[in-house]
Amino acid sequence: MLQEYLLHNKEHVVLRLLLFLQNEGEDFSYVIAFFIGTAACLYQCYLFVYCTGWRNMKSFLTFGLICLCNMYLYELRNLWQIFFHVTVGAFSTLQIRIRQPQGKSPDYNV
Q: Which H, E and C letters describe the chain, residue by residue?
């Protein structure tokens, strides 16, 4: 009711602008959550390809970040999309955990 009054009353331009920015802020937070989730997925790909220190812990924390981002974006995605992203993140974490770095061959320096 208050928002309708402010939107229809032309004298309160500043208040309308503040309401607009508040709504834009919510949309902007969804954009940030989407990009953080995307960056977490790309970081899991990096962890899978390159051997780094604390790789297992980083992959579990990245999976947790993927789950948190999907929980935040719950209103914008359907159940299949959430299930897909969480399942792919879990599978990637499992593959990072299982994968062992390749050793050097015995005749490496020859």
A: CHHHHHHHCCCCHHHHHHHHHHHHHHHHHHHHHHHHHHHHHHHHHHHHHCCCCCHHHHHHHHHHHHHHHHHHCCCCCCHHHHHHHHHHHHHHHHHHHHCCCCCCCCCCCC
What region does 56 belong to: left with phi over 0, alpha with psi -120 to 50, or beta? alpha
What's the mean pLDDT in 30-38?
91
The HSE-up count of residue 72 (CA atoms within 13 Å, CB side) is: 18
Q: Domain locations in the chain?
A: 52-99
pTM reported for the whole predicted model: 0.69
